[in-house]
Automatic annotation (TrEMBL):
<keyword id="KW-0808">Transferase</keyword>
<feature type="domain" description="Glycosyl transferase family 1">
    <location>
        <begin position="221"/>
        <end position="374"/>
    </location>
</feature>
<dbReference type="InterPro" id="IPR001296">
    <property type="entry name" value="Glyco_trans_1"/>
</dbReference>
<dbReference type="InterPro" id="IPR028098">
    <property type="entry name" value="Glyco_trans_4-like_N"/>
</dbReference>
<dbReference type="Pfam" id="PF00534">
    <property type="entry name" value="Glycos_transf_1"/>
</dbReference>
<feature type="domain" description="Glycosyltransferase subfamily 4-like N-terminal">
    <location>
        <begin position="32"/>
        <end position="211"/>
    </location>
</feature>
<protein>
    <recommendedName>
        <fullName>D-inositol 3-phosphate glycosyltransferase</fullName>
    </recommendedName>
</protein>
<dbReference type="GO" id="GO:1901137">
    <property type="term" value="P:carbohydrate derivative biosynthetic process"/>
</dbReference>
<keyword id="KW-0328">Glycosyltransferase</keyword>
<dbReference type="InterPro" id="IPR050194">
    <property type="entry name" value="Glycosyltransferase_grp1"/>
</dbReference>
<dbReference type="Pfam" id="PF13439">
    <property type="entry name" value="Glyco_transf_4"/>
</dbReference>
<dbReference type="GO" id="GO:0016757">
    <property type="term" value="F:glycosyltransferase activity"/>
</dbReference>
Length: 404
């Protein structure tokens, strides 16, 4: 007869076997966006835990398939890069021809023989993998990072065409996601949105997670009032709202705005900054390295995000892990991270005056109040630790009860 301790060891033994995991991504490194960053951290974290991880993603140019090892987040991953072409209305988005997705799925699944397939979207690569994996009896986990409405910003189609296209997109999403054993999305609000939009239930909210070891929080007043935004410069990010709010601020605050990231709206935003007389107070850094990004977080005194389309916002979590107060739009998932009056403030989306007032409240806070907001950011991001995320996905892959 074994002791209770022995029993716990024995019961854990069957689940200790490393898994062969195939992750399908329509966007991945070197792309810079929330879905890509999540997939990179997930894959690297699973490798660190001893799993055999393979990632299927578009190649950076159109050529034959390439399978090789890439180091992502410090960990070696087996990458299966598929021939891709750039979507011309978009500044970096690449895709594989949809009619080839099943062909590539068959090829990769035969080569890898995974225990589980985890798709990061229902669009092209994920769609093909889900259909062939189901045929072969391989379990599927699906994570939705997409709001189909956002894709319409890049279709270059007239408005009257968008409504039927949107319906077709969500119908196809439903068909694909219903093939999965489990469907996840970054927040409860995003899960509720998905369940209301398509005929699906039981969507599991799982934070994208963040490795707080990668950030250096500095608990102290800043010498200068520097705002920071990090992300793609696209329409739904509404960076123009932040620029307009700067014109409402007291000049005595001497606020500088750092913008890190590229996108199709960069030239328009640079032109707007010049029009508003802000050129000497706004710096467009473009794409930055991880080291440069950490430096920007450390120098900043406030993170501002006016986006109306965040399913979670990894950059906001990075800012919180860097001990920054946050002023964010009261939209979609940002209220899950920004608790009004605690680690910053929420403002009415698109309301320039409200945003300016909230920015002013942070920059005129006493040192003690500013430190309180900093510590609230650190406390708030603790629940998004990447290890919790990895524990949850391991349980989903093994079809085990989810960790508390």
């Amino acid at each position: 007869m074994t002791s209770s301790d022995d029993q716990s060891v024995d019961s854990a033994t069957p689940t200790a076997r490393p898994l062969t995991i195939l992750i399908g991504c329509d966007t991945f490194y070197p792309d810079i966006n929330g879905a890509a960053r999540f997939a990179e951290r997930l894959a690297a974290g699973l490798v660190e835990r001893g799993h055999d991880v393979h990632v299927v993603a578009p190649n950076t140019r159109y050529r034959r398939s390439a399978t090789h090892t890439e180091v992502i987040e410090g960990e070696p991953l087996t990458m299966h890069r598929l021939p891709s072409v750039r979507w011309l209305p978009h500044d970096w988005l690449r895709f594989i021809w949809p009619w080839r997705s099943k062909h590539y799925a068959r090829k990769v699944l035969t080569e890898v023989q995974p225990d589980i397939v985890h798709i990061q979207s229902h669009i092209i690569i994920g769609r093909g993998l889900a259909r062939i994996a189901r045929q072969r009896g391989i379990p599927i986990v699906a994570t939705n990072h997409v709001m189909a409405e956002n894709i319409l910003d890049h279709t270059a189609m007239p408005e009257f065409v968008n409504a039927p296209v949107l319906k077709l997109a969500w119908d196809d999403a439903e068909r694909t996601l219903r093939m999965a054993r489990a469907v996840t999305t970054p927040t409860r609000k995003a899960a509720d949105f998905l369940e209301k939009t398509i005929d699906i239930s039981g969507v599991v909210p799982v934070s994208c997670g963040i490795d707080r070891r990668n950030y250096t929080p500095v608990i102290a007043p800043r010498e200068k009032n520097r705002m920071l935004f990090v992300g793609r410069l696209t329409g739904e990010k509404q960076v123009d709202v932040v620029l307009r709010a700067m014109t409402r601020l007291d000049p005595a605050l001497d606020v500088h705005f750092d913008i890190a990231g590229g996108g199709d709206q960069r030239k328009n935003l640079e032109h707007l900054a010049a029009q508003l007389g802000l050129s000497d107070r706004v710096t467009f850094h473009g794409r930055v390295t991880d080291e440069q990004l950490r430096d920007l977080y450390s120098r900043a005194s406030l993170f501002v995000i006016a986006s109306i389309a965040e399913l979670q916002s990894i950059v906001t979590m990075e800012a919180m892990a860097s001990a920054l107060p946050v002023v964010g739009a009261d939209a979609v998932a940002l209220p899950h991270l920004v608790h009004d009056g605690e680690n910053g403030y929420l403002f009415e989306p698109g309301n320039v005056d409200d945003l300016a007032a909230k920015i002013t409240r942070v920059f005129t806070a006493s040192p003690a109040e500013y430190e309180r907001m900093q510590r609230a950011s650190l406390d708030g991001v603790a629940v998004h630790d990447i290890n919790r995320t990895l524990d949850t996905f391991e349980a989903l892959y093994r079809d085990e009860p989810l960790p508390a």
